[in-house]
Design a protein that fits this description.
The chain has one helix and eight strands. The chain is mainly β. An eight-stranded antiparallel barrel has the order 1-2-3-4-5-6-7-8. It is globular, with a radius of gyration of 17 Å. Residues 1-26 have low confidence and may be disordered.
Length: 138
């Protein structure tokens, strides 16, 4: 009985801490949610991305992971500043140690449940332009 109460209490503490770290549990906003789509560019084959974003006021934070079979999967973080139907100052970062470490930055436009735009990527001594096309899961 004591172990069950301890585990339940520990779960509640972990859940509460996680909600506070993500903006107090305020996941509202048109950019919050799960998005999936493609990233394609001049120097990379089209890859599938899955992104989870959380909007809290004038900030969007999130994580992403690629799931294509044609390249080594990568993961990273995303930040941006929403202004109406535009997500400004978008930065997607793949940390050092990953296969394709570097950053991609640009502006994305929201139209219904679609988020699209062009990102400029840099890393490993090169840069390129990539098109990002996402659809929000309902």
């Amino acid at each position: 009985m004591g172990t069950k109460i301890l585990l339940t209490s520990l779960f509640c503490v972990v859940l509460s801490t996680g909600l506070m770290a993500c903006g107090g549990g305020n996941f509202g906003g048109q950019y919050s949610g799960t998005w999936s789509g493609t990233l394609a560019g001049q120097t990379i084959a089209s890859t599938t991305l899955n992104i989870t974003m959380y909007q809290s006021g004038s900030t969007v934070n999130g994580t992403f992971v690629s799931s294509s079979t044609n390249i080594t999967p990568v993961s990273g973080t995303l930040t941006g500043s929403p202004s109406g139907s535009t997500l400004n100052s978008v930065t997607m970062t793949i940390p050092t140690g990953e296969t394709a470490a570097g950053t991609m930055s640009g502006t994305l436009t929201l139209n219904g449940n679609n988020l699209t735009g062009t990102l400029t990527g840099s890393g490993n001594g090169s840069s390129s332009s990539m098109n990002l096309n996402l659809t929000q899961s309902q």
